[in-house]
Design brief:
Elements (H helix, E strand, L loop, with lengths): L1 E2 L3 H8 L8 E7 L9 E8 L9 E2 L2 E2 L5 E5 L7 E5 L3 E2 L2 E2 L2 E2 L4 E8 L13 H11 L3 H15 L5 E7 L4 E8 L7 E7 L5 E4 L21 E2 L5 E3 L3 H7 L12 H5 L4 H17 L3 H5 L2 H4 L12 E2 L7 H7 L30 E3 L5 E3 L9 E9 L5 H4 L1 E5 L9 E4 L24 H12 L3 H30 L4 H33 L8 E2 L2 E2 L11 H11 L11
Parallel strand pairs: 1-6
Antiparallel strand pairs: 2-3, 2-15, 3-21, 4-9, 5-8, 6-7, 9-10, 11-12, 12-13, 13-14, 14-17, 15-18, 16-17, 19-20, 21-22, 22-23, 24-25
Helix pairs in contact: 1-2, 2-3, 11-13, 12-13
Length: 558
């Protein structure tokens, strides 16, 4: 029978109102690179004009012959029916009940390789794989099988495919109009390493197998650490993208070659993440590359071994990066304005009055994020408890990450699609509560960000401290009791965030009314004289240079 449940609509619950994300960032941590053995992957889903609410799909047994409806992006996309799997796992956001997570970032690549006749877009592909896979390796195999059978209709895509034991990076692109399938390569991130993607293809040369695995239908190297489509090299030759020997083949150069924008707007985000966790002097040797000089370095490492183990709290803060403390620091020049803001108005590219082509930096943290998540998978705990998605709607810099367990059976109301309408403000919407606060802070950064960070830390410290009690209580529960307990906990965490953000918004308007600063303590206004926030030194110097002595105070002698 046909079962009309559109996977495009299921995905839309996560990216409601969204045509496509303008750009996204994924960070990846292997289990031996984290402080506690967690595998971690992240997602800032960036694009103006959408509220990216949280989705849930229930598990289910399905009868032979049952089908599921899928449709592409946009109101005019056609509906197609594909075979349903015998069993589907529950999925919360982008993590399923087995602690498998898939996140993505788009890099376009060879645009002639988009097949508009394919049935599956990248989000539908991710959702189907999560419903059908108990491990990261299985998810990669499922994605291959699905595009072979039904066709892929998007451009170049990178996926972080992770479970509680392994982290993989997978790059995939279609084969053009009228051709099903896709060419792709997937590599396992070493357990003691970290990696990242940010809208550019990053896999170049890779280990190769002698022949394809007949059962799987694709190639797997002898060590099992690399998988790829059997025709990934031959297809590049057919299309004229590559002429050399197999051993020298680079996926990126064939299917997603870098240009200056991909380096500065995309690879720079990877560089800044690496710089947080590696020798900064070594990473700064890549600055000429980020400025378009490829004479010494023409690439960043696909992964690095961090100088110290990384915590999930570290990664949450990495998702808030604006190149602070680097040569690309967005708070340190005159364009940051009087309050040293790391945010800039659109567009990224613009022209000076004299015709000079200008740009602004594109950091990991940006105002157009529709949602942010940090997925944490823990092998030593029951799956329902071990998998946590730290989630919120809007820019990672401006929100508190709320723990959402993969074992829940209900989405908290503030994260639900119906409560997050992009055209209607609501106090019941996490998107609008977070944006209400963020849009007060953006233009008066240095004056207000301390109040936001105080509330952010207060919540995230509480969530972290509460986990020991959660795990202790969970140890004695049946599977059904555990689901109910974790659902109630997740709803409570979300409600706590909403109340704290309401308090923060009201504090900001009172404390900073008319661009002064009233004293406060623990989120409350206290008696005392108000002060005025200081201008940034870079702004003052820019004003002096542009206006001469117009604003220089003068002494008048009688």
């Amino acid at each position: 029978m046909k079962r009309l449940i559109s996977l495009a609509l299921a995905a839309a619950c996560l990216v409601s109102g969204m045509e496509k994300a303008d750009a996204c960032t994924n960070l990846i941590v292997g289990k031996k690179a984290s402080v506690d053995g967690s595998v971690i992957c992240t997602y800032n889903c960036d694009g103006f004009g959408f509220a990216s609410s949280l989705s849930y799909s229930a598990p289910g047994q399905h009868a032979p012959g049952e089908q599921i409806a899928v449709r592409g992006w946009g109101p005019n996309a056609g509906v197609h029916y594909i075979a349903q799997a015998p069993y589907t796992y529950s999925v919360v956001g982008l993590m399923n009940e087995k602690q498998v997570s898939i996140v993505e970032t788009t890099w376009d690549g060879r645009k002639e390789l988009r097949n508009p006749e394919g049935w599956l877009g990248y989000f539908t592909l991710m959702e189907l794989a999560l419903q059908r896979s108990a491990s990261a390796r299985e998810a990669i195999a499922v994605m291959h099988q699905l595009v072979q059978e039904y066709g892929y209709n998007d451009t170049g895509e990178s996926f972080a495919v992770c479970d509680k034991d392994e982290a993989w990076i997978m790059e995939l692109i279609g084969k053009g109009p009228g051709r099903k399938g896709a060419v792709w390569v997937a590599r396992r991130v070493p357990d003691d390493c970290i990696s990242a993607y940010a809208n550019s293809s990053r896999i170049r040369q890779f280990p190769q197998a002698k022949k394809a695995d007949k059962k799987l239908g694709f190639c797997v190297t002898a060590d099992g650490e690399t998988m790829y489509s059997a025709d990934v090299i031959s297809f590049a030759r057919e299309m004229g993208y590559y002429e050399g020997p197999d051993a020298g083949f680079s996926f990126r150069e064939a299917y997603g070659p870098l240009d200056w924008g991909a380096i500065r707007y995309c690879e720079a985000r990877v560089w800044s993440f690496y710089r947080h966790h590696y020798d900064t002097a070594v990473m700064d040797e890549y600055l000429p590359f980020l400025n378009g000089d490829l004479s010494v370095h023409d690439d960043l490492p696909l992964w690095i071994k961090p100088i110290a183990p990384v915590s999930y709290r570290d990664i949450q803060n990495d998702m808030r990066d604006h190149y602070e403390g680097t040569a690309l620091d967005m708070t340190a020049d005159a364009s940051a304005g009087p309050w040293a803001s790391p945010y800039r108005n659109q567009p990224v590219n613009y022209d000076a009055p004299d015709g000079t082509k200008m740009f602004r930096e594109r950091p990991i943290g940006c105002q157009q994020s529709g949602m942010t998540m940090v997925c944490r998978m823990r092998s030593w705990l029951p799956d329902a408890l071990g998998g946590i998605t730290y989630f919120n709607l809007d820019d990672a810099t401006m929100v508190a990450y709320v723990p959402v367990y993969c074992g829940v059976n209900r989405i908290p109301d503030p994260f639900r699609r119906e409560n997050n309408k992009i055209t209607e403000f609501s106090f019941d919407s996490a998107f609008w509560m977070c944006n209400w606060v963020a849009n007060m802070v953006y233009p008066r950064w240095s004056a207000m960000i301390g109040d936001l960070q105080e509330a952010q830390k207060e919540l995230e410290d509480f969530y972290e401290a509460d986990q020991a009690a959660v795990e202790e209580h969970a140890a004695g529960l049946t599977a059904g009791e555990l689901t109910d307990f974790l659902t109630v906990k997740t709803i409570g965490y979300t409600d706590k965030m909403m109340k704290r953000w309401d308090k923060l918004a009201k504090l900001l308007i009172v404390k900073h009314n008319d661009q002064i600063m009233r004293p406060s303590k623990d989120g409350e206004i206290v008696p005392g004289r108000h002060t005025s926030p200081a201008y940034s030194p870079a702004f003052i110097e820019a004003v002096k240079e542009a206006t001469g002595d117009r604003y220089v105070r003068k002494e008048i002698r009688q």
